[in-house]
Amino acid sequence: MGIEPMGLRESKKQETRQLISDQATRLFIENGFEATTIAEIAEAARVAKKTVTNYFARKEDMAFDRQDEFAAGLARTVASRAEGESALAALRREFLGGVERHDPVIGFSGEVFARMIADSPTLLGRLRDLHDRREDALAALLAAETTAAPDDITPRAAAAQLGGAHRVLFQRILELTLDGQSDERIAATVSVAAHRVFGLLEGSLGDYAVR
């Protein structure tokens, strides 16, 4: 008897969270991120200001509502790599799959959303933080997967290179989006770029962290 009400509560909480995020993003796009207040977001979502801050510790978290998925993505991909597959090969495969899907997590956000980010120093700063979080998570995973010694810099160096490749490609998608190009055209361009970027790492990381 207790399972269903808990499920309903969790579903309601998720709906409220999504509503707040959607209304906040709409206001950020219409009025600018910095100019939008928590009170305005609460009014648009028809909830109390306290509810907004309970769900989102920072205003920028409402714009990046998939940030946890983003930050954990590289580590999760490497953790689930196939037998005989290296960390580099797994990340290249997953990124190219994301290009085919026009995955928002790798940068396919649409011109309006991309402009919202590009016009906000706060959101650009938060995006850099998320890239750092993603790289840190990957470094920790690589250290565990390769049973590296605590003073071994290799996992951190590898994560920096692999994370850097993803930063470059994310930025390229953002630039092409701001240029007004379609997702299909961006995907064609970035697919070629991804092969080039990951190919540059093949000599140093092609046989690293092979399962």
What does this structure look like?
The chain is mostly helical and 211 residues long. The chain has two domains: 3-62, Arc Repressor Mutant, subunit A (Orthogonal Bundle); 67-205, Tetracycline Repressor, domain 2 (Orthogonal Bundle), CATH 1.10.357. Helices cover 74% and strands 0% of the residues. The chain has eleven helices and no strands. α6 packs antiparallel against α10 (183-200) and α9 runs antiparallel to α10. It is globular. The chain starts with a helix and ends in a 6-residue tail after the last helix. The model has no long low-confidence stretch (mean pLDDT 95).
* Uncertain runs: none
- Distance, first to last CA: 44 Å
Shape: globular
**Secondary structure category:** mainly alpha
The helix/strand order is: HHHHHHHHHHH
The tally of beta strands, per DSSP, is 0
CATH topology of the largest domain: Tetracycline Repressor, domain 2
Mean of residue pLDDT? 95
Strand content: under 5%
Number of structurally distinct domains: 2
Q: Secondary-structure blueprint of this entry?
A:
Elements: H1 3-31, H2 38-45, H3 49-55, H4 60-63, H5 67-79, H6 87-101, H7 111-118, H8 121-145, H9 154-178, H10 183-200, H11 202-205
Helix pairs in contact: 1-2, 2-3, 5-8, 6-10, 8-9, 9-10
DNA-binding region: 37-56
Domain HTH tetR-type: 14-74
Organism: Streptomyces albidochromogenes
Question: How would you describe this structure in keywords?
Answer:
211 residues; mainly alpha; Arc Repressor Mutant, subunit A; Tetracycline Repressor, domain 2; 11 helices; 74% helix; globular; transcription regulation; TetR/AcrR family transcriptional regulator; transcription
